[in-house]
Amino acid sequence: EKKFQQSEMERLSLVASSNRDGVLFVGMDGHIEWANEGISRLTGYVNADIIGSTPIDLFKGSLTGKEALKEMMAQFETGLPFNISAIFYRKDGTYFWGRSKGQPIKDKKGSTQRYFCIIEDISEEKASEEKLKVLSQIAENNINAVVIADKEGKISWANRSFTQMTGYQLEEVSGKSPGSILQG
User: For an engineered disulfide with 44, which of 22, 60, 91, 129 has Cβ 3.0 to 4.6 Å away?
Assistant: First the structure.
């Protein structure tokens, strides 16, 4: 059985090593036991900085969301998987938006032995979300009527100006073509 566990760990390490995202094995004491090269590329930390530290000590900074960290810690302490998005700091003080997914590794008795964690850079995804939020606000607050239709030409969203100008509520026009609404 010990031989099997060793070969299983070696296989898991090979997969983790080749992953382009940051991969960590974190012990139940919260300290990092192993890290792949992806974590170094992502954060600028080398193994000497990483091994024995905690992810929070390394990657937390002033902009890191406290609620996300609390959620992650609660899941970690109860041996449950976690999936959070937060700002992670690099060794040089710069930061990036990251998604951290943690999966408990359990023994045959069901006790969590360590966590397998992946950290991926989602900065571009967050930037796109922010642009969409800004565009959404512009469209919502526009004095002109703004309607968004799906690929079939059916209304999926309309701003406040449209509902005020036409007297229809979004629920009434959703799924209908703009032409059929305005001709009626």
Answer: 91
